[in-house]
Amino acid sequence: MAGSGLELEGPLVAGSGQDAVAVIRASGEIDLSTAPELDAALSRAARSAGSVCVDLSGCTLIDSTGLRVLLTTARDLREEGGELTVSGLTGTVESFFSITGLLLDGSPLSVRAECPPGRGA
Amino acid sequence: MSAPSSMPSTRGDRTRFELSLAVEPESVTRARHAAVDLAREVDASEEEVALAVSEAVSNSVVHAFRDREPGTVEVIADVRNGRLIVTVDDDGDGMSPDLDHSGLGLGLALISRLADEVTFSSSPSGTTVSMAFAIGRDADASEMTEEAGGTA
Fold first, then answer.
1. Between A22 and which of A38, A45, B26, B124 could a Cys-Cys bridge form, CB atoms 3.0 to 4.6 Å apart?
2. Which of A4, A63, A68 is nearest residue B51 as measured by Cβ atoms?
3. 8 A C-beta contact, residue A43 and residue A12
């Protein structure tokens, strides 16, 4: 449960054209005080590529405010034919995704082991 | 309830604390960190306490003061009858449907899932959420990753 604040890296873009994925790496805590930073980073990422992957391996907490930001972005990307993927779920973050049902089939968020390596957008 | 302040006031010992917080996003983080420190001290589930307190204080900050000047959120935690009790109390307008902000239902549902016992009290003069968490061995037995049956 160590670490406060939120540090964001990216977007870095992997692939090209319709297959391009913008990658954001988040470290720290995502709550009401930091969710706007994630929201802004996701907006930048969505302008860089049709799909976005958020690496949460350095994230120690996310609550429903942060989840709402992810789900809103996922919905917006899906409307344009893209998707939002999250990776690196551990500890409290993984537990949160589990109890909110987001690790079940049919979840609006795709989960993968890791985001692809990207280059600077 | 005291006048709102941009900085939290704290008083307490190693097994209890009282925070009087301004209605601002940073208060969510402050309350959560204080509650997690206490959870660690008394051997309660840090995950459950962190997430539940985050949801409860977020509800107060986002929903309690919609049409008037923000007031105060008080967070009081102590150990009673072998459980960690965390109470989040605001002097807002009470719970009511908020069409401008989605997600209130999810926050309350999560609190009910995370705490061993929870009581909600709402009136036009404010909302109080009181959450009880197991400590010691009981906390180990009710880890949130143990999905079967839930904890509400």
1. A45
2. A63
3. no
